Inverse folding.
């Protein structure tokens, strides 16, 4: 017998973005049901590195979202248990030659005008910041606002905290796939259908990450979310050989690129549990999980160029994931005027962990009629329609 | 006596000549085909690593390369799974302290 239940809001996706939507919505007194066909953080989130970065973002709407998010993550880190491994470690972007350093200087100057803290580091200062860095670099910029969390634990603890005191209540339905969106006579959202029954709610949030496009289709609208595959290489546990998030200046160009071809630019960071994580490759190959030795070879080569000491340690394993991106590299956040009651919170590409709290806060403010923390017009979900 | 029953004895094996390896500078005897872990166990050594957080002694748990409990520093390389690495004449095994990479700390 199919079960039936109801809530004020259904969040589809138990990744970090869905968890943040549930958290801020529940905190404003809204009752929330979170549905995911897999486990908490089992899709896009679990395959991430946990980057909370402002350093890689051009001035613009995404940077505004990121600046708000780093502030919110700091607040959350006081409320959530230390197990989420929040580290306000700062980022270090390094340039290999003077031309690249000059480009970085210009980029950082524009970022500073947008509210980013960026401190130029000379070659000597690089040695103090990261003693194991290659000696032949031209310089770099230190970004003290960059931080890190363990993404799966952060999502799980956000969900747990969402149901805490003063909350509108959060129910989790895991292992349940949404197979349809229920609508009323005027096309407005009435809930969702899963294999085990219908769940009723006047609002649903599409937080399905890389699968946000499929969910939008179920709701009868187009949202061109595409997966971009990324590999992360994991070393054996080490002492703190890498203190910050360290990456080469080329990473910024790769993040902004629309190319389908394989791109790699090493982002190297230590973790509280010991292993060093080496990201980030990007390629458009659909939902193909096949191991790419070429991607790993390039990541390893670039990481050892930054940190020669890594040539003497072993990589234990690798993991791959899909970064959900939209053609203009901005997420879709907010109400979808094509289907009343439908909201989107997806398409954050490789920045979803970082951008999750601001996204969740916006969704909650939209639902509760509160003041929006920033202009969400650039994130409007229907912007890819001819009329949008 | 039950304690004298060894895998080699049970199958009636006739292994080739034993050779020497060292564990923390102590000379031990190993048989061809034995893993480092088997050779250490045969010599009565049950722990050859301290855990990273609490410094507790650790040795073989699963014995089949899955659990990573038996990590040891073998010929100066840390984090080798003693249950998988075959013993070779002259191998130098040392107790691995924590992650075994103290030299990299900054």
């Amino acid at each position: 017998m199919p079960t039936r239940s109801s809530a004020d809001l259904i969040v589809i996706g138990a990744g970090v973005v869905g968890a943040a939507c549930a958290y801020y919505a529940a905190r404003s007194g809204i009752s929330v049901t979170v549905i995911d066909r897999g486990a908490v953080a089992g899709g896009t989130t679990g395959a991430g590195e946990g980057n909370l970065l402002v350093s890689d973002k051009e001035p613009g709407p995404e940077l505004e979202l990121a600046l708000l998010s780093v502030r919110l993550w700091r607040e959350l880190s006081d409320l959530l248990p230390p197990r989420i491994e929040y580290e306000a470690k700062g980022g270090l972007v390094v340039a290999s030659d003077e031309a690249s350093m000059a480009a970085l200087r210009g980029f950082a100057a524009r970022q500073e005008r947008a509210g980013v803290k960026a401190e130029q580091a000379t070659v000597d200062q690089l040695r103090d910041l990261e003693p194991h860095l290659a000696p032949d670099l031209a310089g770099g910029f230190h970004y003290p606002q960059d931080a890190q969390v363990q993404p799966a634990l952060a999502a799980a603890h956000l969900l747990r905290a969402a149901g805490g005191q003063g909350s509108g209540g959060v129910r989790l339905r895991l292992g349940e796939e949404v197979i349809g969106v229920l609508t009323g006579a005027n096309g407005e959202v009435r809930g969702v259908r899963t294999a085990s029954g219908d769940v009723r709610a006047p609002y649903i949030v599409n937080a399905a990450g890389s699968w946000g496009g499929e969910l939008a289709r179920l709701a009868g609208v187009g949202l061109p979310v595409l997966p971009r595959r990324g590999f992360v290489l994991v070393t054996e546990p080490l002492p703190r050989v890498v203190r910050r998030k360290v990456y080469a200046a080329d990473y910024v160009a790769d993040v902004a690129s629309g190319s389908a071809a394989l791109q790699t630019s090493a982002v190297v960071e230590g973790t509280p549990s010991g292993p060093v994580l080496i990201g980030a490759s990007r390629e458009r190959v659909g939902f193909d999980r096949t191991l790419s030795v070429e991607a790993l070879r390039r990541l390893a080569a670039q990481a050892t160029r930054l940190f020669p000491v890594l040539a003497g340690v072993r990589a234990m394993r690798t993991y791959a994931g899909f970064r959900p991106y939209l053609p203009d590299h901005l997420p879709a956040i907010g109400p979808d005027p094509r289907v009343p009651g439908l909201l989107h919170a997806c398409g954050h590409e490789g920045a979803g962990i970082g951008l999750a709290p601001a996204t969740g806060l916006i969704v909650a403010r939209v639902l509760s009629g509160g003041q929006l923390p920033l202009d969400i017009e650039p994130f409007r979900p229907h912007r890819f329609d001819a009329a949008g | 006596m039950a304690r004298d029953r060894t895998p080699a004895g049970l199958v009636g094996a006739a292994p080739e000549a034993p050779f020497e390896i060292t564990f923390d500078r102590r000379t031990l005897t190993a048989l061809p085909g034995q893993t480092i872990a088997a050779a250490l166990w045969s010599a009565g050594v049950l722990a050859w690593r301290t855990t990273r957080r609490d410094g507790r002694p650790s040795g073989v748990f699963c014995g089949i390369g899955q659990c990573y409990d038996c990590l040891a520093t073998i010929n100066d390389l840390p984090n080798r799974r003693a249950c998988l690495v075959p013993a070779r004449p002259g191998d130098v095994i040392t107790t691995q302290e924590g992650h075994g990479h103290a030299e990299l700390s900054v």
About this structure: Chain A touches chain B through 13 residues (CB under 8 Å). Chain A has a mean pLDDT of 94. The first strand of chain A starts at residue 3 and ends at 6. The domain at 91-144+226-325 of chain A is CATH 3.30.9.10 (D-Amino Acid Oxidase; Chain A, domain 2).
